[in-house]
Amino acid sequence: MKLINKTLILSAFAAVLLSSCGGSAILSTPIANIDNTPIKETELTLAEKQNWGHLDLVTDTIPGMSVDKAYSEIIKGKKGKTIIVAVIDSGIDINHEDLNGVLWTNKKEIPGNGIDDDKNGYVDDIHGWNFLGDGYDEQLEYIRLVGSGNTSAPRYQEALAKYEEDYKSALSGKERYDQIYQKVSEAHDALTKHFNSEEYTPEQVNAIETDNTELAEAVKSAKFFYANGMTSLVESKKQIKGGVEYFTDQVNFNLNKDFNGRVTGDNPNDFNDKPGYGNGNVIPVKKSESHGTHVAGIIAAERNNGLGANGVANNVELMSVRAVPNGDEYDKDIAKAIRYAVDNGAKVINGSFGKSFSPHAQWVRDAIRYASDNDVIFVHAAGNDGKDVDTEPNFPDDNVDFVEISNTYIRVGALAPEYGTNILAGFSNYGKQNVDVFAPGAKIYSTTPENEYDTKGGTSMAAPAVAGVAALVWSQYPKLTAAQVKQIIMDSGLAVPSKVIVGGDAKDIRPFSEVSKSKKMVNTYNALIMASQLSK
């Protein structure tokens, strides 16, 4: 096993607080020096893979957020105050076995009577609101700009050039994946017929000797897939089908300048048009619309109930706000979703979405400021383009030319489960000014619709991890302000003093201190200790 010959140092602010623990209920401070801690060199076990974001760098030699350590050594069964967390996303499967016990319910609304009982402007909003109605597929924002034909609009020429390049690439990708999918399907069908079973091993395939042309071609194809890291044609089909669906959606919907997926009857370019549009059905419209359910589980899947996943927070109510389609979200929907969450009691809002074009960015910034003014934290995913968001546009944001309009907005980059130069997820955006912290985001196991579980990766997974930490800290120390909770999360993290690969480019190696504002990865254990001191 390798050894870390490094020191993790808490910020000066954290050190002052932690050194004064004295007679508090917390008996020890975080371990800051791990020079002789062995780092895992072998592959993670299944249990570690499914829970790595909760593990501890010192105890488990995995760069998680020390969630389990915080529960066993600090929380020890204390529930704290219930915190409402709004998930602005693609909807949540509110019937999921690991989520149905942690839902926010609007007790002022009578289900199914068609009346806005609480006079909040939304009829029958029992567990949240759906700003998309029955909609699902949508264009990307820059495609809407191209489709508008408004050549005088800001960034129109940039959008047009990008469309021409991306649409051509999507067509090529679709054609390539269609061909590969046909190839693997034909091979699998032939081998299934030969073995009279869909289950067969690479060794069995390699042992086939045949004069049958069709079977020989199937063996040749299977060997090609095996040589490229696949161990099962069934799994190969599943992965390749995902590629087919991705490029098909791009060609038919996301990059189709003539497509219009809006079904709510309002004008998305008029903020005040048709108040209360949408409906109260916050469940995804199809099983594959799993993003929001996965995010919700990361925050608050019921802990230690014998089911598939554990959330970070142990005393929250999840408010589902459906506003993110299969494509780019509308600025109007996001701005109204944030305001809905704030007005209906959410203290933490998770936003695992983003885009590079935003025609009404100010509407969303105003909503983010509204959240801040009302003592609400907004946690936002940094994005998955492997880019520097200090120089590349990424929306929504909380600043204009680096002048922030909110002190409760947290932008989160993603970590991978490997300490060292590869700790930054290759897809994650970064930024010394515009990304606040990093948290586990690659290969995260969580809930998906219809009582299922799956592993997904993205800054979309890192943001809810931080939202969960914010809710947990606030639950335990409810006298803190939203701004204080944000600052605790940023100041109490673990600094990584080594250089890391940035944007997945092995030639781009920088100090970890240059990829985020805090220069740290989030640590739940440290955050709770700092919160205990600050709340006195």
TrEMBL record:
Q: Where is the Peptidase S8/S53 domain?
A: 80-492
Q: Does the keyword DNA damage apply?
A: no
The record's keywords, sorted A to Z, are: Hydrolase, Protease, Serine protease, Signal
Q: Where is the signal peptide?
A: 1-25
Active site residues according to the UniProt entry: 89, 291, 460
Tell me which domain of life the UniProt entry assigns to the organism this sequence originates from. Bacteria
One Pfam family named in its UniProt record = Peptidase_S8
Q: Which family does it belong to?
A: Belongs to the peptidase S8 family.
Q: What is this protein called?
A: S8 family serine peptidase
Give the organism the record lists.
Answer: Bizionia gelidisalsuginis
